[in-house]
Design brief:
Blueprint (H helix, E strand, L loop, with lengths): L1 H9 L4 E6 L4 E6 L4 E2 L4 E4 L3 E4 H9 L4
Antiparallel strand pairs: 1-2, 2-3, 4-5
């Protein structure tokens, strides 16, 4: 996974989000380095605010 992240950074992708829905865990990698996102929320000018906590919660909902 580290090699793929480095590849994206080499192509000037500014933000790489690394979610793990099984552990409810989120990290963001970018030019400033790797950081944990304990509140499960990331925000960029291009995409806006993304709440992975809400997305992870949907995975636990029973399907119809």
């Amino acid at each position: 996974m580290s090699a793929k992240i480095a590849e994206y950074l080499n192509f000037d992708v500014p933000h790489i989000w690394i979610p793990n829905p099984y552990r409810c865990w989120l990290q963001e990698d970018g030019r400033d380095g790797l950081r944990d996102c304990p509140n499960l929320v990331v925000e960029t000018d291009l995409v806006g605010r993304v709440d992975f906590g809400a997305l992870f919660a949907k995975l636990d909902e029973p399907s119809e």
